[in-house]
Amino acid sequence: MTRLVLRRLGTSLLVLWGAVTVSFTALHLTPGDVADALIGNSTVTPEVRARIIADYGLDRPLPVQYVSYLGRVLRGDLGQSYQLHESVASAIGAQLGASAQLVAGALAVAVVVSTTLALLTARRARWIRGLSSGLELIGVSIPTFWTAILLLTVFSFQLGWFPAAGGEGLSGLALPVIAVAIPVTTLLTQMMRENLETVLDEPFVLTARSRGMSDPGVRLRHALRHVLVPAVTLLGWVVGLLLGGMVAVEQIFSRQGIGQLTLAAVIGKDLPVVMGVVLVTALVYVTVNILVDLLYLVIDPRLRGAR
């Protein structure tokens, strides 16, 4: 287990190093002067411009600039936003909590709903499976921003059940969470149902049934465990889908978060913030996938001794 963790940490460091390198390369490939790219649409005095050149070492050779940039990132220094007049780390930190709530809520809803639907529809009547498959096809086909607009129109503007924009607490979080969770739920349900139907044909399931175990007991106590490993694998991948969907959802529901910060930075050409968001996103993705690897060992103890 220790070797597995160390090996996973090693590959994760390579991914993070790649993200830092790509960010540095993108900065120096932007048209025009690098200092102008860092300043963006802001207006600064010649003294501030000279300080930016000195801080980033733009007057030094490119390899030296790269080593200096890598060192700042390792120290947690993601640069300065000259539009927000604060450090990139503090700007991202102020918005990270709201986005984390949205992602955690969407993951929780997706896992609970998809597991329930898969257990209820696997090996059932044809019309039940057909109805579930049709709804899943619709859910995965509709873009997230369109789903968000529909939810906002029906449940906020027409029914008035939820706040239309910027709501606090669970009432303000419900519709954004549902909008982000729908495509993830449909993908998980399809995958879990197909795997569950395969597992239900295995000999150990027949043995459990021959002992008099009920159908719900077989599904919950025996079959579900074998489905969770591929489901957790897919969850590690869909984190990227969730992070991508936040930009549109936070904009539509006027929520604070990383998505809003990224959109404002792109529009305002605030390149340090964009680069900081890329690095933080890579760190989150790597962390989630490490947790996924550890969850394998919890779900299936047989993997602890496997090479």
Written overview of the protein:
This protein has 2 domains: 2-88, no CATH class; 91-302, Orthogonal Bundle (MetI-like fold). Helix content is 78%, strand content 1%. It contains 12 helices and 2 strands; from the N terminus they run ααααββαααααααα. It is flat. The mean pLDDT is 77.
Topology, element by element:
Elements: H1 2-29, H2 34-39, H3 46-56, H4 62-74, E1 80-81, E2 86-87, H5 88-121, H6 126-141, H7 144-158, H8 169-199, H9 203-210, H10 215-252, H11 258-267, H12 271-299
Antiparallel strand pairs: 1-2
Helix pairs in contact: 1-12, 5-8, 5-10, 5-12, 6-8, 7-8, 7-10, 8-10, 9-10, 10-11, 10-12, 11-12
Can you give the mean pLDDT?
77
Number of domains: 2
Let me know the CATH homologous superfamily of the largest domain.
MetI-like
- Please tally the helical runs, counting DSSP H or I stretches of 4 or more residues: 12
Structural class: mainly alpha
- CATH domain class name of the largest domain: Mainly Alpha
Sheet-strand content, in percent, reads: under 5%
Poorly predicted residue ranges: none
**General form:** flat
Helical coverage, percent range: over 70%
Strand order of the largest sheet: 1-2
User: How can the largest sheet be summarized?
Assistant: 2 strands, antiparallel
Helix-strand string: HHHHEEHHHHHHHH
Rounded to an integer in angstroms, the radius of gyration calculated over CA atoms is: 24 Å
User: How many β-strand runs?
Assistant: 2
CATH level 3 topology of the largest domain: MetI-like fold
Give the N-to-C terminal Cα separation.
Answer: 10 Å
Query: Architecture of the largest domain, CATH level 2?
Result: Orthogonal Bundle
